[in-house]
Each structure stands twice: as C-alpha cells, then as structure tokens.
Design brief:
The protein has 262 residues and is an alpha+beta fold. The protein has a single domain, classed as 3-Layer(aba) Sandwich (Glutaredoxin). 63% of the residues lie in helices and 9% in strands. It has nine helices and five strands; from the N terminus they run H-H-E-E-H-E-H-H-H-H-H-E-E-H. It has a five-stranded mixed sheet, with helices on both faces. It is elongated.
Length: 262
C-alpha cells in the first residue's frame, strides 16, 4: 500500500509555509514573554514597597559588613535560607571532623578564640557527617561531650589522632574496636561506649548535626557558621586566627546592624 501523498509535495512551498508558521509562533511567544515581564515589573515594585522592614534590615546588615571590612564572596557567604533564628543571641557553629588534619590544627585557635569572646556569644562544635563511618565518629563526640569537663579536652585530642590514623579503614567494626580501646584508656568502659552507640538522645543530636550541616550548605571542614546566616570562607586565611577574625567581624557587624535598627 502506498502512503497518501503530501499536499505540500513541492519542497520550496513546504519551506515557505513552515517558515511562516515559525514566524507566527515566534511572534506569539515574544508577545507572551513581554506580557510576563511587564507583570513582573509591576509586582516587583509593589513587593518592595510592601516589605520595607525586610529591605531596611538587609541594607543595615550590608552596610555594617562593609563597615567592618568584609566582602561577600571573599570573606563570607550568605546562607540563602538562614538555618536558625538567633534572635538577640550570637551563635557560632564549627563543622568539623575528627578525621580532618586541618580541623585538628584549627582546634587550639578555636578554643583560644572562644575564651576571648565577649558575653552573649556561644560556640558550638558540630560533627560533620557525609559518610557512614562519620556517624560513628559523631556519636563518640557526643559521648565525650557528656563526660565531666576535665576529661573532654584530652579525649578530644586523642580522638583526632586516632581517627586520622584509622579513617581509611573500610570496616566500621574495626574502627569501633579501635575507638573502644582508646576510650578505655581514658576511663570510659566498653558498656558505656556500647550504650552510647544505641542512645536515643545521642542519635537525636547526630540527626540534628547532619541536618544542620546540610541546610547550611557547608561542604568542607573546618567551616564556621555565624548565626545560622553566614558561612566563613577560608580562602583568604593564611593562618587559623584569620578564620576566627572573620567570624569576629561578622559578629561585630551584626551588633552594629541590630543597634542601628533599635
């Protein structure tokens, strides 16, 4: 059976008709785009005048950040959707991993800086999690944080060295046994360790840590997050204290902006 011949059997005629249809379609598309653009312009102007308080706050913060000498994209990154509401508080989170040599090197500077901070500023370490062994490491961190204060610092230092040493071991059971032995050396018995690994409160903290890092957009360690709104960029840092200096300036800018708004 032969197919029915096309009404546009002449190639040149087909081309002319096709081009005509394309031109008509393009005209309609451009008309639609222009209409949307006009509507967007109208809504944009209305939105700005209707939300002057938010615009004012952003302007105050931007001016304060410039005043303290910080440049967005060079010293800090603004988190598109702030991950927490700090209200009148100042909270600095450090995303870290025991298996990160850079985090180990940063640790003394972080603690020295924490001691120098004015009242009203809280520093919280958050274990980074992007692989299954890091869940184990995070649980160990929260176990150590539950111990008496005098036991924490030596154990944290020992855990950095141990996990940097064993981080490439693929068998989590082997890592767990290594960590159990280390904790036993520091007075934490096996039962306490095993109980902590199944503890619901510790698991809740691990889940929160994982969600916090994901929502912040942080992708490396160590990374400082200030007030759930800014991530400190380490690119310009020549030494550990340069990182904390940027966080210091962000806190100062927040203080200036809040004072200007009151």
């Amino acid at each position: 059976m032969q197919s029915k011949p096309s009404k546009l059997s002449n190639p040149s005629l087909r081309t002319k008709v096709t081009r005509g249809k394309q031109s008509s379609l393009q005209a309609r598309v451009w008309f639609f785009i222009l209409a949307l653009f006009s509507l967007g312009q109208t809504l944009g102007c209305s939105g700005e005048s209707g939300d002057s308080s938010q615009s004012s706050q952003s302007s105050a913060l931007a001016a304060a950040l410039q005043q303290v000498g910080l440049v967005e994209g060079r010293h800090y990154k603004v988190i598109e959707k702030p991950v927490l509401d700090a209200h009148n508080k100042f909270i600095v989170h450090e995303f870290f991993w025991y298996g990160c040599p850079h985090c180990e090197a940063f640790e003394p500077a972080l603690h020295d800086w924490t001691k120098s901070l004015l009242g009203g500023v809280t520093v919280e370490q958050v274990p980074a999690i992007w692989a299954s062994p890091m869940v184990l490491h995070a649980k160990v961190f929260y176990l150590v944080e539950s111990l008496p204060r005098e036991k924490r610092a030596p154990l944290h230092a020992a855990l950095f060295k141990k996990i940097i040493e064993i981080r490439k071991l693929r068998d989590i059971g082997t890592q767990q046994r290594e960590l159990a032995a280390l904790l036993a050396e520091h007075g934490v018995d096996g039962t306490t360790f095993e109980t902590a690994l199944e503890d619901k409160e510790i698991q809740r903290k691990v889940d929160r840590a994982q969600a916090l890092m994901k929502d912040s957009g942080a992708s490396s360690t160590p990374t400082l997050m200030v007030n759930g709104r800014y991530l400190v960029m380490n690119d310009t840092a020549q030494q550990a204290s340069d990182i904390t200096a940027i966080a210091d300036k962000i806190i100062r800018a927040e203080r200036i902006a809040r004072k200007a708004e009151n």
